[in-house]
């Protein structure tokens, strides 16, 4: 099927020879114990342990932008829980690992709530506090933790009566680390990964697409807690001995360093970082200077490679060759499937009404007693001087502001006061005056992010990339291409959206809003920054959408464009409606000329 | 005054400017028009020194400024009014203007500053009323005027305007173009990047049409207005 083509091409592009490389590295790592001394196998084992945790932390640091400096605490929870059950009840590793994961998940989930709510700098402070508290508990609560001496005599993992030696434990860690990487890689290329990155890059835009920021950050934190707990349990059993000083503040710092040094948000970064941070001090024999060297390393990385080693490499590779664009032979998807079905009966009346809406910001009365009706399947233009309150109106209709008083009705149903997610659910989508694309997602992924709400994936299918999920991903990608075609976007689709010229960003943002299948589309200055030729194309797109039954509210300053496309024009000035009617009626209105249009004194300016 | 020869510029693998040749004489207003992604903003950036060209030269007042960074070219008399009204929203109008002075740090004699401000007020009376207001609370038109003032207070010899009409009400757009005309009358040299090509070509002496990183058409404003292709693609005449 042609529709599948783009995704596959994209995969081929992002993973060139990657499978060969993965295979080679796995072979090398698997053969390791045959050639190197136990000392180095032990080191590699530690690399693996750190890799498992940092792969999990990569989700929160790299995808969600949450820098936790307390994950050693979560690792300790997994390790001590496993050790406790093993030494007290003789529970075997396979069970204690599960218990360790469960306890770490519960504690991590509880920790996640205040951490995410706090946000910003306080977020990291809370995780530091958590790490310190855990450290204190381990030292004081002797009955559980054995105090400063820790717990010793933990049994090695075993199958039947066969006890694992160092080599087997090493393989175990290798497999778990590889699996963790694969899961996180899957997560990145799913609704979950896109939503996490969307929230990190632009919360407001993410909310406008119905993405609830907290849910995604929370899920990311929970997954990272699972990985930390699992790594802790494996470490406890493999090492047979644990004590509080292994899980101190220094370890938490080390973990953050690993992720940032390797490259937050990249697939290979955490593994690369683990290698460097674990092996370097051993090889260079500077154990006593460890902290100082980590500090220096962190400083150098943040200064010279803010995207980490893997991130910088990826940028470099992208620079070497411009990303290949999939050919134009995209599967066409019928318009009915792209847009919300609307019944003809509803399209005759009024879709949206504002009744005596007021908005005050403190003492500032921005919108005053504003009432207007938006006829269904028509284009209403909202015009007025800069600062008249047009964007405020859009923000109220889309749920970003709540009116101070007055009512908003959609299809006769009162909707004012709803959240952006509620409004989206009811079929209201919007674009922004200053475009808010997710700059680190590709153009295509931005549009795909618009379908996060309509095409839900459960976390399990996203992590394991189930057949159903893969099929859905292909479908979403094909739809995203179709939306881009629909808005007449002709630029590259696999480049990061942040690199697009201004006008293209606007068009992509319209495609992203359409991907939520709205019945009412709010466009905030879509023609700003477009040439006359491009405006004509935009006009065709809007006409096509209108014919398909969409209702559109347009804020625009290009009067010529407004006149050609609007069925109705509402003019506001200082938050008050000063005129309403067809474009021609409004244009001749003396109030509108005085407040907004001005006298045309330039002979050549009729076209604008 | 400004001469660009065979300028090439890459963004990663993308060849953004493909051999640009352009000249601006003293006291001239030169319009640069073109569609999105044509390279207009990049061109301004390479003059100011915010982006690094791969090859070619930019000569300004006889000096090669191809690789001179922005903070130095500004002191040489080149000033940019960036796209999208980039005011410092949490600073007052006064502080915004103060930052535009060449002497950004250190004491400025009060009467000199007053004199500078008086000149700004003469051109933009509205800013006088708003001088102690936070720039973020100004209307779009006022913000654009502030950004232009901030550039002017540094006494530039070459002013780069990047889409000054973007997102402004028609009445304000007219005002902005009146201001540009006023600047022209006072002898300012201006490069004007503008989507409203028709308006741009009414104030400009000459113009360049940029397409896919190349200069496709150039000529006097009169010639460009009469050019069929230009009229169709950029002036909205079918």
What does this structure look like?
The complex is a heterodimer of chains A (608) and B (238). Chain A is 57% helix and 12% strand. Chain A has three domains: 18-250, no CATH class; 349-427 and 520-608, Rossmann fold, CATH 3.40.50; 442-517, no CATH class. The model of chain A is unreliable at 1-15 and 601-608 (pLDDT under 50). In chain A, helix 9 (191-201) crosses helix 19, helix 12 crosses helix 13 and helix 19 (443-449) crosses helix 21 (467-486). Chain A is α/β, with parallel strands linked by helices and 608 residues long. Chain A has a six-stranded mixed β-sheet, with helices on both faces. Chain A is elongated, with a radius of gyration of 29 Å. Chain A has helices spanning 5-14, 18-35, 38-63, 71-89, 93-118, 120-140, 142-145, 166-188, 191-201, 203-208, 213-239, 249-262, 269-284, 290-304, 308-320, 335-338, 390-397, 420-425, 443-449, 459-464, 467-486, 502-514, 532-547, 559-565, 583-587, 590-597; strands at 151-152, 158-159, 162-163, 241-242, 350-361, 364-375, 379-383, 405-410, 413-414, 428-430, 520-524, 551-555, 568-573, 576-581. Chain B is α/β, with parallel strands linked by helices and 238 residues long. Chain B has a single domain, classed as 3-Layer(aba) Sandwich (Rossmann fold). Helices cover 38% and strands 26% of the residues of chain B. A six-stranded mixed β-sheet of chain B has the order 6-7-8-3-9-10, with helices on both faces. Chain B has a four-stranded antiparallel β-sheet with strand order 2-1-4-5, with helices on one face. In chain B, helix 3 packs parallel to helix 6. Chain A binds chain B through residues 315, 318-323, 383-387, 433-434, 491, 499-504, 525, 528-536, 557, 559-560, 595-598, 600-602, 604-605, 607-608, and chain B through 11-14, 33-37, 41, 83-84, 138-141, 163, 166-175, 177, 195-199, 201-202, 225, 232-237.
